[in-house]
Each structure stands twice: as C-alpha cells, then as structure tokens.
Amino acid sequence: MTDLPSSLLEPLVRAALNEDLAQGGDLSSLSTIDRAAEGSAALRLRTGGVVAGTALARIAFALVDPRIELSLLIEDGEHGEHGETIMRAEGPVVSLLTAERTALNFLTHLSGIATLTAAYVAETQGTAARIAATRKTLPGLRLVQKHAVRMGGGMTHRMSLSDAVMIKDNHVAASASIADAVAKARAYAGHTVKIELEVDTLAQLEEALPAKPDIILLDNMSTDELRKAVELNSGQAILEASGGVNLDTVRAIAQTGVDVISVGALTHSAPALDIGMDLAG
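Above: the chain's sequence. Below: its structure in token form.
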C-alpha cells in the first residue's frame, strides 16, 4: 500500500486498536506471558491469493510497540501461494499478540477484495472491458477498499459524490427529460467534471446520445441489449455495464464490447482471504 500515505492510514488503525484495547490491554496475553519474553511471528497465507493491506498491518504492530521489527516478504498486489509468509515480526511476545487481530483483520479483508477483483479481471482477459469498484464500501474504509481493488487489477468508480456527476433514474424523474438533466448538470459542474448518465433501456440510450454525456451506465441489460447498445453508441460515450454481474456472467458481459463493468460485490461481498499468524517463540 505504498501509494497511500501513512497519515491517512494511521487513524484507521488507531480506531481499530482502540476497539481492542478499550479496557486497557490484552488481558489474555498479559495474564499468561512474561512481559520480557521475546519471540517472532509469521503472517502466512492459508490459501493462495492476492495480498493487500500490508501497510495497515505494519502500522498496527508499530503502534502497539515500536520495538517490533518487521520484514515484508510479499508486497501489496503480489500473488502468494498457500503456506507462503507475507510478513515476519520480531519483538515482545505480548506486543505481537496484542497487534495480531488488528493486523490480520485488515490483511484478510483487503486481500479478499484484491483476490476477488483479480478473479473478475481474469475473466475479462482478451476483451477491452475494465473492472471497476463502486461506492458500496464500508464506512470509513472506502480508501483502502478501493486500493485493494486496484491491487487486484481493477479500477475505481467515483470515490465520493463530488468526484463526478452521476445522473440516475431518480434525477431524471425529477427533471423535464434526460436532455434537460444532462444540460443542467453540465452547466452546474463545469467543463472539467465528467457526466455519467444511467439508462435502463435502449430507447433511453437513443434519447441520451444526442445529449452527449461522457459516460453512459447500462443498468441491468441483457447481453443482447448490451451488444445493441455498443452498436448504437458507436464510440460516442464510454459505456459502463452494471447489474447482474458475477463471476459466471462477467465474461459474456465483457465480450459485448462495453468499456467498463462495475461490480459492487468487490467491496461489499468479498470473502476474507484466510491468513493466520504463527508464533515461533
């Protein structure tokens, strides 16, 4: 996670540690382990996958005890096999165990997102389609979840509501027409802001094209409809397919010729990657 500054990551880790240390410390470790005991630990993959979240894990150990020495063996964005070590940590055993769960929570969650993203990207190989995450993220974790998507080979949609104009069906319903909504958005947002418009039917697409939005989101269309949409569009706008996307359908969607496929499941439903910490003593 070298492209994200620690000043943005550290508050996330502090909040997580505060949940674990709210009552003053790791009662289990403090009551059973000599505070002077030193040891080493390995954070290992228990199943293969793409790693993400190493910077957050490093910060967790450093905040618990700056005496802990860390060595990173697998970088964010790299694929590791079952049994491989992502990171080694050496220092006071009590401190290692105190930081363990926070470090693993970030690693397993973000590596799960990166691994799922990589699976979607693999399904689109040989097509021009890109896989994108959405704003369907956990509160407070959007930045790192979107980073994990990038580590899996995907890209991001909007980071926030102010990144771009996204005219959805409710916005159109509150306007006179699709053209009216796009014209108002362009006048309000200015020339540097992209405008995306959501359509549900090919008829809406035909109505939308003369308004010249930068991006058109094709919502819950069949693959036949997507192919026709690509023909109608003829390169005028970036076409994004969304809805009904899963690992069984994504390749067929990509083969229709759309430019982007947005997948909310990347961030809201990715299973955690199995990673554990083994203490050597």
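The chain has two domains: 6-115+271-279, 122-268.
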